[in-house]
Amino acid sequence: MFLKLKRISNDYKRNVEQGIDDFCNRVENLFVSTYFEVVFFKKSFTWFKPISFLKESGLRIDRVFECEVMVPPGKTLTIACKYQVFGDRGTYRAEYKFDSVSQHRQTWIHVDRYH
Fold first, then answer.
1. With 80 as the cut, is the pLDDT of residue 3 above it?
2. Dihedrals phi, psi of 102, to nearest 5 degrees
3. Mean pLDDT in the chain?
4. What does pTM read for this prediction?
5. Is residue 101 within 8 Å of 73, Cβ to Cβ?
6. Are 46 and 18 in contact (CB under 8 A)?
7. Residue 51 pairs with which residues in a beta bridge?
8. What are phi and psi of 76, to 5 degrees?
9. So what's the pLDDT on residue 9?
């Protein structure tokens, strides 16, 4: 689907991306204001990927936050959020824990997969 948007015109694709950016702005502002003391927010971007599940095709759209965790050694940072999946009435909770084990720079990567 996203490739079809690109074929229509680059302006159309840009407008779709801008609409998603505008929609996500409230969530990003809430995240930054909630965790500004322990997380340095660098940037965000939207990631698109075609998916299929049980012979159903769709488009997965993720909003990615690039941040630097600023937790002193020996401490754990927990970040949690609630989310909904389009077309599903349920509310889900995601929780991420970051442990700081030394003065050395740590890299944390989380990949959420649809199974």
1. no
2. -160, 180
3. 77
4. 0.60
5. yes
6. no
7. 58
8. -120, 135
9. 67
CA 36 to CA 41: how far, in whole Å? 8
Looking at per-residue confidence, does 25 or 102 come out higher?
A: 25
pLDDT category at 103 given cuts 50, 70, 90 is low
Place of tokens 């630097």: 68
CA angle 44, 45, 46 (to 5 degrees): 140
Residue with tokens 């649809």: 114
Whether the CB-CB separation of 79 and 39 falls below 8 Å is answered with yes
Q: Give 59's contacts (C-beta < 8 A, 6+ positions apart).
A: 1, 2, 48, 49, 50, 51
- According to DSSP, residue 112 is labeled -
Please state, in angstroms and as integers, the Cα–Cα distance from residue 80 to each residue in 34, 62, 83, 94, 105, following that order: 11, 16, 10, 6, 23
